[in-house]
Design goal:
With about 550 residues, the protein is an all-alpha fold. The protein is built from 22 helices and two strands. A hairpin with a 5-residue loop joins β1 (about 400) and β2 (about 405-410).
Amino acid sequence: MHMRVARRRLAALTLILVGAVWNGVCCGQGPALTTKSPEVLSAIDRGIKYLESDAAKDDRTGAHALVGIAILKAHPDQPDHPKVLAAIARIQKAIENRDLDKANPDLDIYSTGLSIIFLIERDPIAHRADIEFLLAYLRARQKKHGGWGYPGRDTGDTSMTQYGVLSSWEARYHGFNVPMESIDAVANWLLRTQDPSGAFGYQGTIAENVGKLVPQQEVRHSMAAAGLGALYLCSHMLGMAGQPEKPAKEERIPSALREIKPKNARSDPSKYRSKIDPKLVREAEERGNGWFDANFKVEVAQYNLYYLYALERYKSIAELCDKNAEKDPQWYSDVAQFLIEKQSPNGIWNSGCGEVPDTAFGVLFLLRSMKRSIEKAVAFGEGTMIGGRGFPKDTGDLVVDRHGQAKQRKLLGPADELIDALDDPEGKDFDRSIEQLPELPQDKIESLSAKHAEMIRRLVSNKKWEARLAAVKVLGKTRDLDNVPVLIYALGDPVPDIAKAANDGLLRISRNPTLVRFPDKLTDSERRAIIEKWKAWYQTIRPGADLDL
Protein backbone atom coordinates (compact mmCIF):
# COMPACT_ATOMS: atom_id res chain seq x y z
CA MET A 1 0.00 0.00 0.00
CA HIS A 2 2.69 2.44 1.00
CA MET A 3 4.65 1.52 -2.14
CA ARG A 4 1.68 2.35 -4.41
CA VAL A 5 1.21 5.77 -2.75
CA ALA A 6 4.91 6.45 -3.08
CA ARG A 7 4.82 5.53 -6.77
CA ARG A 8 1.79 7.81 -7.38
CA ARG A 9 3.54 10.69 -5.62
CA LEU A 10 6.71 10.11 -7.63
CA ALA A 11 4.70 10.04 -10.88
CA ALA A 12 2.93 13.29 -9.97
CA LEU A 13 6.23 14.94 -9.04
CA THR A 14 7.73 13.78 -12.35
CA LEU A 15 4.82 15.33 -14.29
CA ILE A 16 5.25 18.59 -12.40
CA LEU A 17 8.98 18.71 -13.15
CA VAL A 18 8.47 17.83 -16.82
CA GLY A 19 5.83 20.54 -17.07
CA ALA A 20 8.12 23.08 -15.47
CA VAL A 21 10.93 22.23 -17.87
CA TRP A 22 8.56 22.36 -20.85
CA ASN A 23 7.16 25.73 -19.75
CA GLY A 24 10.68 27.04 -19.29
CA VAL A 25 11.60 26.06 -22.84
CA CYS A 26 8.39 27.45 -24.36
CA CYS A 27 8.37 30.69 -22.42
CA GLY A 28 12.02 31.58 -22.85
CA GLN A 29 13.05 30.73 -19.31
CA GLY A 30 15.76 28.24 -20.24
CA PRO A 31 19.49 28.95 -20.17
CA ALA A 32 19.84 32.64 -21.02
CA LEU A 33 21.75 33.82 -24.04
CA THR A 34 24.25 36.62 -23.39
CA THR A 35 26.59 38.73 -25.50
CA LYS A 36 29.26 36.10 -24.81
CA SER A 37 27.23 33.05 -25.79
CA PRO A 38 28.86 31.10 -28.65
CA GLU A 39 25.62 31.19 -30.69
CA VAL A 40 25.43 34.97 -30.31
CA LEU A 41 29.07 35.51 -31.22
CA SER A 42 28.61 33.32 -34.27
CA ALA A 43 25.57 35.33 -35.40
CA ILE A 44 27.48 38.59 -34.92
CA ASP A 45 30.39 37.22 -36.92
CA ARG A 46 28.11 36.15 -39.80
CA GLY A 47 26.44 39.55 -39.82
CA ILE A 48 29.75 41.42 -39.84
CA LYS A 49 31.11 39.24 -42.64
CA TYR A 50 28.11 40.13 -44.77
CA LEU A 51 28.49 43.86 -44.01
CA GLU A 52 32.18 43.63 -44.93
CA SER A 53 31.40 41.93 -48.25
CA ASP A 54 30.88 43.49 -51.68
CA ALA A 55 27.31 42.16 -51.60
CA ALA A 56 26.39 44.67 -48.88
CA LYS A 57 25.46 47.66 -51.04
CA ASP A 58 23.31 50.62 -49.98
CA ASP A 59 24.47 54.11 -50.98
CA ARG A 60 22.34 56.02 -48.47
CA THR A 61 24.51 58.10 -46.14
CA GLY A 62 22.84 56.61 -43.08
CA ALA A 63 23.36 53.05 -44.34
CA HIS A 64 27.10 53.69 -44.77
CA ALA A 65 27.22 55.12 -41.25
CA LEU A 66 25.35 52.14 -39.81
CA VAL A 67 27.81 49.71 -41.41
CA GLY A 68 30.70 51.71 -39.98
CA ILE A 69 29.16 51.77 -36.50
CA ALA A 70 28.55 48.02 -36.54
CA ILE A 71 32.10 47.21 -37.67
CA LEU A 72 33.67 49.56 -35.11
CA LYS A 73 31.49 48.24 -32.28
CA ALA A 74 32.49 44.69 -33.18
CA HIS A 75 36.11 45.49 -34.01
CA PRO A 76 37.21 48.77 -32.37
CA ASP A 77 40.79 48.03 -33.41
CA GLN A 78 39.89 48.49 -37.10
CA PRO A 79 39.36 52.27 -37.55
CA ASP A 80 40.79 52.04 -41.07
CA HIS A 81 38.68 49.12 -42.26
CA PRO A 82 37.74 49.70 -45.95
CA LYS A 83 34.03 49.92 -45.11
CA VAL A 84 34.79 52.43 -42.34
CA LEU A 85 36.82 54.57 -44.74
CA ALA A 86 34.02 54.26 -47.31
CA ALA A 87 31.55 55.57 -44.73
CA ILE A 88 33.80 58.56 -43.99
CA ALA A 89 34.06 59.33 -47.71
CA ARG A 90 30.28 59.09 -48.15
CA ILE A 91 29.62 61.45 -45.24
CA GLN A 92 32.21 63.96 -46.42
CA LYS A 93 30.65 63.90 -49.88
CA ALA A 94 27.24 64.60 -48.34
CA ILE A 95 28.51 67.61 -46.36
CA GLU A 96 30.91 69.10 -48.91
CA ASN A 97 28.70 72.17 -49.50
CA ARG A 98 28.29 72.83 -45.75
CA ASP A 99 25.05 74.75 -46.23
CA LEU A 100 23.00 75.07 -43.05
CA ASP A 101 20.12 76.90 -44.72
CA LYS A 102 19.00 74.23 -47.19
CA ALA A 103 17.79 70.73 -46.46
CA ASN A 104 20.21 68.25 -48.00
CA PRO A 105 18.61 65.09 -49.49
CA ASP A 106 21.75 63.14 -48.52
CA LEU A 107 21.34 64.30 -44.92
CA ASP A 108 17.90 63.33 -43.71
CA ILE A 109 17.60 63.28 -39.92
CA TYR A 110 18.38 59.54 -39.76
CA SER A 111 21.56 59.96 -41.82
CA THR A 112 22.64 63.08 -39.93
CA GLY A 113 22.26 61.45 -36.53
CA LEU A 114 23.89 58.20 -37.57
CA SER A 115 26.79 60.07 -39.20
CA ILE A 116 27.45 61.95 -35.95
CA ILE A 117 27.40 58.70 -33.97
CA PHE A 118 29.70 56.95 -36.45
CA LEU A 119 32.29 59.74 -36.54
CA ILE A 120 32.32 59.92 -32.74
CA GLU A 121 32.74 56.15 -32.55
CA ARG A 122 35.72 56.25 -34.90
CA ASP A 123 37.59 59.31 -33.60
CA PRO A 124 35.83 62.37 -32.15
CA ILE A 125 39.05 64.40 -32.25
CA ALA A 126 40.06 63.72 -35.83
CA HIS A 127 36.48 64.26 -37.07
CA ARG A 128 35.64 67.18 -34.79
CA ALA A 129 35.05 69.75 -37.55
CA ASP A 130 32.69 67.43 -39.45
CA ILE A 131 30.84 66.48 -36.26
CA GLU A 132 30.45 70.16 -35.35
CA PHE A 133 28.93 70.91 -38.76
CA LEU A 134 26.55 67.95 -38.56
CA LEU A 135 25.43 69.02 -35.07
CA ALA A 136 24.77 72.53 -36.38
CA TYR A 137 22.85 71.07 -39.33
CA LEU A 138 20.80 68.95 -36.92
CA ARG A 139 19.96 72.00 -34.80
CA ALA A 140 18.93 73.94 -37.92
CA ARG A 141 16.45 71.16 -38.81
CA GLN A 142 14.84 70.99 -35.35
CA LYS A 143 11.24 72.21 -35.46
CA LYS A 144 9.86 74.97 -33.27
CA HIS A 145 7.94 72.53 -31.08
CA GLY A 146 11.17 70.67 -30.31
CA GLY A 147 10.87 67.48 -32.37
CA TRP A 148 12.38 66.57 -35.72
CA GLY A 149 10.37 65.61 -38.79
CA TYR A 150 9.95 65.81 -42.54
CA PRO A 151 10.81 69.07 -44.35
CA GLY A 152 7.68 71.04 -45.17
CA ARG A 153 5.58 69.34 -42.48
CA ASP A 154 4.76 70.88 -39.12
CA THR A 155 4.45 67.61 -37.24
CA GLY A 156 7.29 66.02 -35.37
CA ASP A 157 8.22 62.45 -36.24
CA THR A 158 8.99 60.14 -33.30
CA SER A 159 11.09 57.90 -35.52
CA MET A 160 13.34 60.73 -36.68
CA THR A 161 13.40 62.45 -33.31
CA GLN A 162 15.02 59.46 -31.62
CA TYR A 163 18.08 59.88 -33.86
CA GLY A 164 18.28 63.61 -33.20
CA VAL A 165 18.28 62.87 -29.47
CA LEU A 166 20.63 59.88 -29.62
CA SER A 167 23.27 61.71 -31.63
CA SER A 168 22.98 64.73 -29.31
CA TRP A 169 23.54 62.47 -26.30
CA GLU A 170 26.57 60.82 -27.90
CA ALA A 171 28.02 64.23 -28.79
CA ARG A 172 27.42 65.78 -25.40
CA TYR A 173 29.11 62.98 -23.50
CA HIS A 174 32.13 63.15 -25.77
CA GLY A 175 32.82 66.81 -25.11
CA PHE A 176 30.76 68.57 -27.79
CA ASN A 177 28.59 71.58 -27.11
CA VAL A 178 24.92 70.61 -27.32
CA PRO A 179 22.60 73.48 -26.32
CA MET A 180 20.43 72.33 -23.46
CA GLU A 181 17.61 74.56 -24.72
CA SER A 182 17.37 72.16 -27.66
CA ILE A 183 17.17 69.14 -25.36
CA ASP A 184 14.62 70.85 -23.12
CA ALA A 185 12.47 71.55 -26.19
CA VAL A 186 12.53 67.98 -27.48
CA ALA A 187 11.87 66.59 -23.98
CA ASN A 188 8.81 68.83 -23.76
CA TRP A 189 7.63 67.62 -27.17
CA LEU A 190 8.03 63.98 -26.12
CA LEU A 191 6.10 64.56 -22.90
CA ARG A 192 3.23 66.14 -24.84
CA THR A 193 3.09 63.53 -27.60
CA GLN A 194 3.00 60.45 -25.39
CA ASP A 195 -0.13 58.35 -25.80
CA PRO A 196 -2.23 58.08 -22.62
CA SER A 197 -1.33 54.37 -22.60
CA GLY A 198 2.36 55.24 -22.18
CA ALA A 199 3.39 54.34 -25.75
CA PHE A 200 4.13 56.74 -28.61
CA GLY A 201 2.74 57.26 -32.11
CA TYR A 202 4.43 57.99 -35.41
CA GLN A 203 3.56 61.64 -36.17
CA GLY A 204 3.10 63.32 -32.81
CA THR A 205 -0.19 65.02 -31.94
CA ILE A 206 0.75 67.67 -29.37
CA ALA A 207 -1.33 67.81 -26.19
CA GLU A 208 -2.14 71.18 -24.68
CA ASN A 209 -0.20 70.14 -21.60
CA VAL A 210 1.36 67.02 -20.13
CA GLY A 211 -1.55 66.52 -17.73
CA LYS A 212 -4.03 66.11 -20.60
CA LEU A 213 -2.45 63.64 -22.99
CA VAL A 214 -4.28 62.96 -26.23
CA PRO A 215 -4.48 59.67 -28.19
CA GLN A 216 -1.74 59.27 -30.77
CA GLN A 217 -1.95 57.81 -34.28
CA GLU A 218 -0.08 54.67 -35.40
CA VAL A 219 0.93 53.59 -31.92
CA ARG A 220 3.26 50.61 -32.25
CA HIS A 221 6.17 48.93 -30.53
CA SER A 222 8.91 50.57 -32.58
CA MET A 223 7.56 54.05 -31.82
CA ALA A 224 7.10 53.21 -28.14
CA ALA A 225 10.76 52.17 -27.90
CA ALA A 226 11.88 55.20 -29.92
CA GLY A 227 9.93 57.74 -27.87
CA LEU A 228 10.65 56.24 -24.47
CA GLY A 229 14.35 55.76 -25.22
CA ALA A 230 14.59 59.36 -26.41
CA LEU A 231 12.82 60.61 -23.26
CA TYR A 232 15.26 58.72 -21.02
CA LEU A 233 18.21 60.16 -22.98
CA CYS A 234 16.81 63.68 -22.54
CA SER A 235 16.30 63.18 -18.82
CA HIS A 236 19.88 61.96 -18.52
CA MET A 237 21.27 65.00 -20.35
CA LEU A 238 19.12 67.34 -18.29
CA GLY A 239 20.45 65.87 -15.06
CA MET A 240 17.10 64.40 -14.01
CA ALA A 241 18.32 60.82 -13.68
CA GLY A 242 21.49 58.80 -13.31
CA GLN A 243 24.85 60.51 -12.94
CA PRO A 244 25.20 64.27 -12.35
CA GLU A 245 24.91 66.51 -15.36
CA LYS A 246 28.01 67.97 -16.99
CA PRO A 247 27.80 71.73 -17.52
CA ALA A 248 27.35 72.94 -21.06
CA LYS A 249 30.30 74.68 -22.65
CA GLU A 250 30.15 78.43 -22.84
CA GLU A 251 29.15 79.78 -26.23
CA ARG A 252 30.17 83.45 -25.96
CA ILE A 253 33.85 83.03 -25.21
CA PRO A 254 35.51 86.45 -25.63
CA SER A 255 33.25 88.17 -23.09
CA ALA A 256 33.90 85.36 -20.61
CA LEU A 257 37.61 85.94 -20.96
CA ARG A 258 37.22 89.33 -19.36
CA GLU A 259 35.11 88.10 -16.46
CA ILE A 260 36.96 87.82 -13.16
CA LYS A 261 35.19 85.90 -10.42
CA PRO A 262 35.98 86.12 -6.73
CA LYS A 263 37.60 83.11 -5.14
CA ASN A 264 34.45 82.09 -3.27
CA ALA A 265 32.23 82.15 -6.38
CA ARG A 266 31.99 78.39 -6.88
CA SER A 267 28.66 78.19 -8.75
CA ASP A 268 28.70 77.38 -12.45
CA PRO A 269 26.63 79.94 -14.41
CA SER A 270 26.63 77.73 -17.51
CA LYS A 271 24.73 75.00 -15.65
CA TYR A 272 21.41 74.73 -17.43
CA ARG A 273 18.25 74.57 -15.35
CA SER A 274 15.43 72.88 -17.16
CA LYS A 275 11.96 74.40 -17.07
CA ILE A 276 10.47 70.90 -17.00
CA ASP A 277 9.31 69.40 -13.71
CA PRO A 278 11.35 66.19 -13.19
CA LYS A 279 8.25 64.58 -11.67
CA LEU A 280 6.48 64.84 -15.02
CA VAL A 281 9.39 63.14 -16.74
CA ARG A 282 9.44 60.34 -14.20
CA GLU A 283 5.69 59.83 -14.52
CA ALA A 284 6.00 59.63 -18.31
CA GLU A 285 8.84 57.09 -18.02
CA GLU A 286 6.77 55.00 -15.62
CA ARG A 287 3.80 55.08 -18.02
CA GLY A 288 6.07 53.91 -20.83
CA ASN A 289 7.64 51.18 -18.73
CA GLY A 290 4.17 50.02 -17.73
CA TRP A 291 3.12 49.81 -21.37
CA PHE A 292 6.13 47.68 -22.21
CA ASP A 293 5.56 45.43 -19.19
CA ALA A 294 2.07 44.72 -20.48
CA ASN A 295 2.80 44.63 -24.22
CA PHE A 296 6.35 43.40 -24.69
CA LYS A 297 6.93 41.57 -27.98
CA VAL A 298 9.97 40.29 -29.79
CA GLU A 299 8.40 39.87 -33.21
CA VAL A 300 6.35 42.74 -34.67
CA ALA A 301 4.66 43.13 -38.03
CA GLN A 302 6.68 46.03 -39.43
CA TYR A 303 10.39 46.97 -39.38
CA ASN A 304 11.28 44.34 -36.80
CA LEU A 305 15.07 44.89 -36.75
CA TYR A 306 14.66 48.67 -36.58
CA TYR A 307 12.42 48.14 -33.54
CA LEU A 308 14.86 45.80 -31.81
CA TYR A 309 17.72 48.29 -32.24
CA ALA A 310 15.53 50.93 -30.54
CA LEU A 311 14.47 48.44 -27.87
CA GLU A 312 18.07 47.74 -26.80
CA ARG A 313 18.70 51.49 -26.62
CA TYR A 314 15.63 52.10 -24.45
CA LYS A 315 16.40 49.20 -22.13
CA SER A 316 20.06 50.19 -21.72
CA ILE A 317 19.50 53.88 -20.94
CA ALA A 318 16.62 52.96 -18.61
CA GLU A 319 18.96 50.58 -16.76
CA LEU A 320 21.38 53.47 -16.24
CA CYS A 321 18.81 56.04 -15.19
CA ASP A 322 16.69 53.73 -13.04
CA LYS A 323 19.73 51.90 -11.65
CA ASN A 324 18.17 48.50 -12.18
CA ALA A 325 20.60 46.80 -14.55
CA GLU A 326 20.38 43.00 -14.76
CA LYS A 327 23.50 41.00 -15.51
CA ASP A 328 21.82 38.73 -18.05
CA PRO A 329 18.34 40.14 -18.81
CA GLN A 330 15.69 37.79 -20.15
CA TRP A 331 14.55 40.28 -22.80
CA TYR A 332 18.01 40.14 -24.38
CA SER A 333 18.01 36.35 -24.38
CA ASP A 334 14.55 36.19 -25.97
CA VAL A 335 15.48 38.62 -28.75
CA ALA A 336 18.87 36.98 -29.33
CA GLN A 337 17.19 33.60 -29.78
CA PHE A 338 14.75 35.15 -32.26
CA LEU A 339 17.55 36.83 -34.23
CA ILE A 340 19.59 33.64 -34.42
CA GLU A 341 16.57 31.79 -35.80
CA LYS A 342 15.74 34.52 -38.33
CA GLN A 343 19.27 35.13 -39.65
CA SER A 344 19.90 33.74 -43.12
CA PRO A 345 22.89 31.41 -43.69
CA ASN A 346 24.84 34.24 -45.33
CA GLY A 347 24.41 36.46 -42.25
CA ILE A 348 21.60 38.72 -43.48
CA TRP A 349 18.53 40.01 -41.67
CA ASN A 350 15.85 41.83 -43.62
CA SER A 351 12.59 43.14 -42.16
CA GLY A 352 11.75 46.08 -44.40
CA CYS A 353 14.54 48.64 -43.99
CA GLY A 354 16.85 46.89 -46.46
CA GLU A 355 19.38 44.10 -46.02
CA VAL A 356 22.27 46.41 -45.09
CA PRO A 357 20.52 48.52 -42.41
CA ASP A 358 18.62 45.55 -40.98
CA THR A 359 21.76 43.43 -40.72
CA ALA A 360 23.55 46.30 -39.01
CA PHE A 361 20.59 46.69 -36.62
CA GLY A 362 20.76 42.98 -35.79
CA VAL A 363 24.49 43.08 -35.12
CA LEU A 364 24.15 46.22 -32.98
CA PHE A 365 21.41 44.64 -30.88
CA LEU A 366 23.41 41.48 -30.26
CA LEU A 367 26.47 43.54 -29.33
CA ARG A 368 24.35 45.65 -26.95
CA SER A 369 25.54 48.73 -28.79
CA MET A 370 23.86 51.28 -26.52
CA LYS A 371 25.20 49.65 -23.38
CA ARG A 372 28.70 49.93 -24.86
CA SER A 373 28.11 53.60 -25.67
CA ILE A 374 26.99 54.23 -22.10
CA GLU A 375 30.09 52.53 -20.71
CA LYS A 376 32.30 54.66 -22.94
CA ALA A 377 30.46 57.88 -22.07
CA VAL A 378 30.63 57.17 -18.34
CA ALA A 379 34.33 56.37 -18.70
CA PHE A 380 34.88 59.66 -20.50
CA GLY A 381 33.14 61.48 -17.69
CA GLU A 382 35.59 59.87 -15.26
CA GLY A 383 38.59 61.14 -17.17
CA THR A 384 39.58 58.62 -19.82
CA MET A 385 40.71 59.93 -23.17
CA ILE A 386 38.17 60.55 -25.91
CA GLY A 387 38.05 57.50 -28.17
CA GLY A 388 39.84 55.33 -25.62
CA ARG A 389 43.21 55.88 -27.28
CA GLY A 390 46.50 57.12 -25.85
CA PHE A 391 47.92 56.62 -22.39
CA PRO A 392 46.78 53.92 -20.01
CA LYS A 393 44.11 54.77 -17.46
CA ASP A 394 46.47 54.98 -14.50
CA THR A 395 48.43 58.10 -15.42
CA GLY A 396 48.51 59.95 -12.13
CA ASP A 397 52.26 60.75 -12.24
CA LEU A 398 52.80 60.47 -16.01
CA VAL A 399 53.69 63.64 -17.94
CA VAL A 400 55.26 64.41 -21.30
CA ASP A 401 58.45 66.42 -21.66
CA ARG A 402 59.21 68.96 -24.40
CA HIS A 403 60.62 66.19 -26.60
CA GLY A 404 57.39 64.20 -26.45
CA GLN A 405 58.77 61.54 -24.12
CA ALA A 406 56.66 60.11 -21.30
CA LYS A 407 58.24 60.38 -17.87
CA GLN A 408 57.33 60.22 -14.21
CA ARG A 409 57.03 63.43 -12.26
CA LYS A 410 55.39 64.24 -8.98
CA LEU A 411 52.30 66.40 -9.52
CA LEU A 412 50.60 68.62 -7.00
CA GLY A 413 48.11 65.80 -6.57
CA PRO A 414 45.21 64.51 -8.65
CA ALA A 415 44.81 66.41 -11.92
CA ASP A 416 41.66 68.14 -10.68
CA GLU A 417 43.75 69.72 -7.90
CA LEU A 418 45.66 71.65 -10.56
CA ILE A 419 42.39 73.28 -11.54
CA ASP A 420 41.54 74.03 -7.91
CA ALA A 421 44.89 75.79 -7.58
CA LEU A 422 44.09 77.93 -10.64
CA ASP A 423 41.06 79.34 -8.82
CA ASP A 424 43.40 81.31 -6.55
CA PRO A 425 45.92 83.39 -8.61
CA GLU A 426 47.59 84.57 -5.43
CA GLY A 427 47.87 81.12 -3.87
CA LYS A 428 51.14 79.30 -3.27
CA ASP A 429 50.35 76.51 -5.78
CA PHE A 430 49.20 78.70 -8.68
CA ASP A 431 52.60 78.93 -10.39
CA ARG A 432 53.28 75.20 -10.06
CA SER A 433 49.84 74.46 -11.42
CA ILE A 434 50.23 76.54 -14.59
CA GLU A 435 53.67 75.00 -15.11
CA GLN A 436 52.36 71.44 -14.88
CA LEU A 437 49.04 71.88 -16.70
CA PRO A 438 50.37 71.82 -20.31
CA GLU A 439 52.59 68.83 -19.48
CA LEU A 440 49.72 66.56 -18.53
CA PRO A 441 49.10 63.55 -20.78
CA GLN A 442 46.56 64.06 -23.50
CA ASP A 443 43.80 62.08 -21.77
CA LYS A 444 43.98 64.30 -18.68
CA ILE A 445 44.01 67.47 -20.78
CA GLU A 446 40.90 66.34 -22.64
CA SER A 447 39.14 65.43 -19.40
CA LEU A 448 40.04 68.63 -17.55
CA SER A 449 39.14 70.78 -20.55
CA ALA A 450 35.73 69.13 -20.82
CA LYS A 451 35.00 69.79 -17.15
CA HIS A 452 36.75 73.14 -16.60
CA ALA A 453 36.80 74.80 -20.03
CA GLU A 454 35.54 78.14 -18.75
CA MET A 455 38.25 78.49 -16.11
CA ILE A 456 41.03 77.52 -18.54
CA ARG A 457 39.75 79.98 -21.15
CA ARG A 458 39.70 82.80 -18.59
CA LEU A 459 43.41 82.24 -17.98
CA VAL A 460 44.09 83.53 -21.52
CA SER A 461 43.50 87.04 -20.13
CA ASN A 462 45.43 86.51 -16.87
CA LYS A 463 47.94 89.20 -15.92
CA LYS A 464 50.70 86.58 -15.66
CA TRP A 465 52.11 85.71 -19.07
CA GLU A 466 53.05 82.23 -17.85
CA ALA A 467 49.39 81.52 -17.07
CA ARG A 468 48.29 82.81 -20.49
CA LEU A 469 50.88 80.61 -22.23
CA ALA A 470 49.83 77.52 -20.26
CA ALA A 471 46.16 78.07 -21.07
CA VAL A 472 46.80 78.59 -24.78
CA LYS A 473 48.88 75.42 -24.97
CA VAL A 474 46.19 73.39 -23.21
CA LEU A 475 43.35 74.77 -25.35
CA GLY A 476 45.30 74.13 -28.53
CA LYS A 477 45.88 70.50 -27.58
CA THR A 478 42.17 69.69 -27.21
CA ARG A 479 41.30 70.20 -30.89
CA ASP A 480 37.98 71.60 -29.70
CA LEU A 481 36.33 74.08 -32.09
CA ASP A 482 34.79 75.86 -29.09
CA ASN A 483 38.34 77.02 -28.25
CA VAL A 484 38.98 78.65 -31.62
CA PRO A 485 37.67 82.16 -30.68
CA VAL A 486 39.87 82.17 -27.55
CA LEU A 487 42.93 81.16 -29.55
CA ILE A 488 42.21 83.83 -32.17
CA TYR A 489 41.98 86.32 -29.30
CA ALA A 490 45.38 85.08 -28.03
CA LEU A 491 46.98 85.83 -31.42
CA GLY A 492 46.97 89.45 -30.28
CA ASP A 493 48.97 88.72 -27.12
CA PRO A 494 52.08 90.96 -26.87
CA VAL A 495 54.22 87.98 -25.77
CA PRO A 496 55.49 86.36 -29.03
CA ASP A 497 55.56 82.82 -27.57
CA ILE A 498 51.88 83.06 -26.64
CA ALA A 499 50.80 84.29 -30.08
CA LYS A 500 52.90 81.56 -31.70
CA ALA A 501 51.39 78.89 -29.40
CA ALA A 502 47.90 80.15 -30.30
CA ASN A 503 48.64 79.81 -34.00
CA ASP A 504 50.08 76.32 -33.45
CA GLY A 505 46.91 75.32 -31.62
CA LEU A 506 44.72 76.66 -34.42
CA LEU A 507 46.75 74.72 -36.99
CA ARG A 508 46.28 71.55 -34.93
CA ILE A 509 42.51 72.10 -34.67
CA SER A 510 42.21 72.84 -38.39
CA ARG A 511 44.26 69.72 -39.21
CA ASN A 512 46.04 71.79 -41.85
CA PRO A 513 49.64 72.51 -40.74
CA THR A 514 50.30 74.90 -43.64
CA LEU A 515 47.11 76.94 -43.50
CA VAL A 516 48.65 80.06 -41.89
CA ARG A 517 52.36 80.84 -41.79
CA PHE A 518 53.47 82.57 -38.59
CA PRO A 519 56.73 84.56 -39.06
CA ASP A 520 59.29 84.80 -36.25
CA LYS A 521 59.09 88.58 -36.28
CA LEU A 522 55.57 89.87 -36.66
CA THR A 523 54.46 93.33 -37.75
CA ASP A 524 51.13 94.75 -36.63
CA SER A 525 49.71 94.50 -40.15
CA GLU A 526 50.85 90.87 -40.47
CA ARG A 527 49.25 90.07 -37.11
CA ARG A 528 45.95 91.63 -38.19
CA ALA A 529 46.04 89.71 -41.47
CA ILE A 530 46.62 86.41 -39.62
CA ILE A 531 43.75 87.12 -37.23
CA GLU A 532 41.40 87.92 -40.14
CA LYS A 533 42.45 84.76 -41.96
CA TRP A 534 41.66 82.60 -38.95
CA LYS A 535 38.32 84.38 -38.47
CA ALA A 536 37.42 83.68 -42.09
CA TRP A 537 38.37 80.02 -41.71
CA TYR A 538 36.31 79.64 -38.53
CA GLN A 539 33.25 81.14 -40.17
CA THR A 540 33.44 78.54 -42.93
CA ILE A 541 33.17 75.89 -40.20
CA ARG A 542 30.56 77.77 -38.16
CA PRO A 543 28.72 80.13 -40.50
CA GLY A 544 27.38 83.19 -38.73
CA ALA A 545 29.62 82.77 -35.69
CA ASP A 546 29.97 86.00 -33.68
CA LEU A 547 33.68 86.82 -33.37
CA ASP A 548 33.54 90.03 -31.37
CA LEU A 549 37.23 90.08 -30.41
